[in-house]
Amino acid sequence: MKYFYAYATTEAECEAIHTIVLHSDLNIQETSIYIDNNRYDAWNQLIANLEMKDELYVYKLSSIAADGNTLFVHLTYIKNKDITIKLLDDSDLNTEQMLTLIDFVRDTQRKQIYDKQMKGIQRALEKKRNGEGDYGRPKITLPADFEVNIKKIMRKEMKHEDYREKLGFKRSTYFKFVKDLKDSWKQQELERSLRKDGKY
């Protein structure tokens, strides 16, 4: 049985294609004409009716789907069903060759994307080695009065939890900064002690 399918992007295009098919010499019944408009409802209806050895006419190869991946899926279905696909001038399309070509194009595109990603990663790593750019988690900037407020907390004038919530820090992040600050105090105290003893 003969069927026709096309994927169009506008109502005007749908109507124009429909008129062309009706006035062709192919004698395709109007009930066997399936034209989609930005969706694949008609395609789904079509494949519910397609049977082995049927003939599927298309307006042009690019009108079978909106993108390469969907085109590959549609052509694979047609090939597996052993359906002959033809253009409106009644010339056959070699589905196997079309699939091979599309597969090659998709592989080439994937490789190009991968190569671009790798180049981007290499540039990012190079910038990181040179100390340029920001990578990983966003850096947290401590307020200028952080040390002053921690000292107030040490004197029981404030509470850690209240100050942490005010800063909007996670507990682990907040107490890491507190620990780093206390460690720096210990280091400063040690250096003062060594200088006092003449050992530094």
Q: Segments where pLDDT lies below 50 for 5+ residues?
A: none
Q: Under the CATH scheme, which architecture of the largest domain would be assigned?
A: 3-Layer(aba) Sandwich
Task: Give the strand order, joined by hyphens, for the main sheet.
Answer: 2-1-3-4-5
CA-atom Rg in angstroms: 35 Å
Main pleated-sheet profile: 5 strands, mixed
Number of strands: 5
Reported by name, the CATH topology of the largest domain is: Rossmann fold
Q: From N to C, what is the helix and strand string?
A: EHEHEHEEHHHH
Distance between the termini: 97 Å
Classify the beta-strand content into a percent band.
5-15%
Overall 3D form: elongated
The CATH homologous superfamily of the largest domain is termed: Resolvase, N-terminal catalytic domain
Give the class-level CATH name of the largest domain.
Answer: Alpha Beta
The average pLDDT score comes to 85
Question: Structural class, judged by helices and strands?
Answer: alpha/beta
Number of helices: 7
InterPro entries: Resolv_N, Resolvase-like_N_sf
Domain Resolvase/invertase-type recombinase catalytic: 2-130
GO molecular function, one term: DNA binding
Protein name: Resolvase/invertase-type recombinase catalytic domain-containing protein
Structural write-up:
The protein is an alpha/beta fold. It has helices at residues 11-22, 41-49, 68-80, 95-129, 146-154, 160-167, 171-196; strands at residues 2-8, 33-37, 55-58, 84-87, 92-93. It folds into two domains: 2-93, Rossmann fold (3-Layer(aba) Sandwich), CATH 3.40.50; 146-196, no CATH class. It contains seven helices and five strands. It has a five-stranded mixed beta sheet, with helices on both faces. α1 links the parallel β1 and β2. α3 (68-80) packs antiparallel against α4 (95-129). This is Resolvase/invertase-type recombinase catalytic domain-containing protein.
